[in-house]
Write a structure and sequence with these properties.
Helices cover about 35% and strands about 25% of the residues. It contains 18 helices and 28 strands. The strands form 7 sheets. An 8-stranded mixed sheet has the order 11-15-16-23-20-19-17-18. Strands 1, 2, 3, 7 and 8 form a 5-stranded antiparallel sheet that branches. A 5-stranded mixed sheet has the order 25-24-26-27-28, sandwiched between helices. Helix 1 (about 10-30) crosses helix 2. The longest helix is centred in the N-terminal third of the chain and has 21 residues, at about 10-30.
């Protein structure tokens, strides 16, 4: 089932028209400013400007006031078509507009839009009829950041003015309130407050340090995933973190992905050049190639908890969601053509099981990422091979009734893929889990099996992750649960607090009994007020607190504060342990 993404074109046009209002306001206040580009984006628009002063909060207030004055004048947007030569004369003092004009074909008409009689801008349009159409809009300049012209760090740094823009002031207010709530769940902030991870400037961007609490969650996830994969017939491998360039040349990564790799050495100077692995597939193929294969051996399923390295651009780094070193639940499955649909289905079922168990299933969307036949240099293989792979995948997805959107040009260089995507709290979407069909790389590596008739054939390969990147998964879990993880995932499941120092030995005894039953437990035996201890533990989102004082020690009981309990006293520890074990076993959300 294919769902076509639809944009609200009227909203997009209105936002772009408001970008011209912003540009006019800036030029009216700062006549020497140079305008670059001002596109509409998901929550409004931005405009890049070259200005010899940094905009302050006071400047922003003045610009917003001027924008409102322009809107109240009900000025018309009027299009005028001119030649390239005329356009160059009009924008002779603006190198950014001249660069855009130079890229147009000779003889191509250039369109400019006037807003009133005293402002014009280079633009294809379309625009609303008049600023009167925008007077009910809610808009707010929310930030000014640096941005290299055309995203190239070799170019000049401009100021990018970001503006929220919505059809009504209420929609704007609702959106801003939503963002304030989102900030409270932002994993980049909350993950540090909860001591899950940190970053260090002199280690580098995209290289987070997982602290003990965060590392514990990753360990829990990893063991859970590997055990679940083993139940489903996956066999674990362990492969090197790097390889000679020879391996990547066979796979095609050297030609199609080299810029995204960390290369060790210089091809012109060194006898051998190595690179850190950006993916595991060419390594795991060696397990298949280790011996001759028959059709009876298939399917073969190899999984690996793989540490990978990708040279992401510095501007792309974000907390745990986009990093340069990460760990992934990677797997490669070799099968016959008649097994492809069933095996793809089983990979998808595994991914959905993981999403449901983690509570992320309702947040997921599906993207069928295809090649762009107008950009063949990005890919290996023939049009016929791509058409066959994509039609096979479409048939499988439609048969399984997966609701997907199509992403042209987003396939891997060797095959189409299904990307399962999740949005972060700010609405930015990234891929969490990927399942790919590949009929190219088996032939490149000489991977064959002997079929029933004795002929040699290349297997289909399914590349898949079952939970995706562990760091990214942790980021989404932090945001999903605002740090209050399900009990089975919580780094500490129980904290035992002593009311006074004389109760410390009893608190230690309780903690040891919990540890003996496999419960993750910590103690707080400090000579502090109990209220302070409780607040501190609650701030760390620990699910259950056991509080013991003289009464509990005398009666050999415990008092509980936590999920499902306000304040319960006089409880039996063994009964509480059974409750915990049942909640952990069920992986209750």
């Amino acid at each position: 089932m294919e769902i076509i993404e639809k944009k609200d074109l009227n909203l997009e046009m209105s936002r772009h028209s408001l970008a011209h209002v912003l540009a006019k306001a800036i030029i009216s206040i700062y006549p020497n400013a140079k305008l670059a580009i001002g596109p509409a984006i998901d929550d409004g628009f931005y405009y890049d400007i070259d200005l010899d002063k940094s905009l302050t909060n006071e400047d922003i207030s003045i610009i917003e006031k001027r924008m409102k004055e322009i809107l109240n004048k009900s000025e018309r947007f009027v299009k005028k078509a001119i030649s390239k030569e005329e356009a160059k004369k009009l924008f002779k003092d603006n190198e950014y507009k001249l660069e855009i004009i130079d890229e147009l074909k000779d003889g191509e008409e250039v369109s400019i839009y006037y807003l009133g009689e005293d402002f014009f801008d280079l633009c294809r349009g379309p625009h609303v009829e008049s600023t009167a159409n925008l007077q009910n809009f809610g808009f707010k300049i929310h930030s000014v950041n640096g941005a290299y012209w055309r995203g190239n760090e070799k170019n000049k740094m401009l100021q990018r003015v970001y503006v929220y823009a919505f059809k009504t002031k209420k929609e704007l207010s609702d959106y801003v309130n939503m963002l304030e709530e989102a900030k409270k769940r932002d994993h980049n902030k909350l993950g540090r407050e909860l001591q899950l991870f940190t970053t260090v400037d002199y280690i580098g961007q995209g290289l987070p340090i997982l602290l003990p609490r965060g590392a514990k969650i990753i360990q829990i996830l990893q063991r859970f995933v590997e055990d679940e994969e083993s139940k489903r017939g996956w066999m674990i491998t362990k492969t090197p973190f790097m390889a000679k360039s020879d391996l990547y040349k066979i796979s095609g990564h050297w030609d199609h992905y080299k810029d995204g790799m960390f290369v060790l050495g210089n091809e012109e100077k060194d006898k051998e050049v190595f690179a850190l692995r950006p993916m595991t597939c060419p390594f795991q193929y060696q397990a298949y190639l280790n011996q001759a294969r028959s059709y009876k051996d298939l399917p073969l399923r190899y999984n690996e908890t793989s540490t990978l390295f990708r040279n992401e651009a510095s501007g792309e780094m974000h907390g745990l969601i986009r990093v340069r070193q990460f760990t992934i639940s990677e797997g490669h499955l070799m099968c016959r053509p008649d097994q492809l649909e069933e095996e793809f289905k089983s990979c998808l079922e595994l991914a959905i099981y993981m999403l449901k168990t983690l509570g992320l299933y309702e947040d997921a969307s599906y993207r069928f990422s295809q090649w762009d036949e107008n950009d063949k240099e990005k890919y290996i293989g023939t049009k016929e091979q791509w058409d066959e792979a994509q039609s096979t995948m479409k048939k499988i997805l439609d048969h399984l009734e997966i609701p997907y959107v199509v992403g042209i040009g987003e396939a891997a260089f060797y095959g189409p893929k299904l990307d399962i995507q999740i949005k972060n709290v700010f609405g930015k979407e990234d891929t969490l889990i990927t399942i790919q069909i590949d009929q190219m790389l088996a032939e490149k590596f000489g991977m064959e099996y002997t079929d029933k008739d004795g002929s040699k054939k290349n297997p289909y390969i399914i590349h898949r992750t079952s939970i995706g990147c562990y760091e990214r998964t942790l980021a989404y879990l932090i945001e999903k649960y605002a740090g209050a993880f399900p009990l089975w995932l919580s780094p500490e499941q129980v904290k035992v607090l002593s009311l006074t120092e004389r109760n410390n030995d009893y608190a230690k005894l309780i903690a040891q009994q919990l540890k003996d039953e496999g419960i993750r437990v910590e103690t707080d035996l400090r000579n502090e007020k109990i209220g302070y201890k409780i607040r501190e533990a609650l701030n760390m989102k620990i699910p259950y607190l056991i509080i013991v004082g003289d009464e509990e020690e005398q009666n050999k009981t415990i008092s509980i504060r936590g999920r499902g309990f306000e304040n319960k006293s006089g409880l039996n520890l063994s009964d509480f342990i059974i409750r915990l074990q049942n909640e952990i076993k069920s992986k209750k959300i």
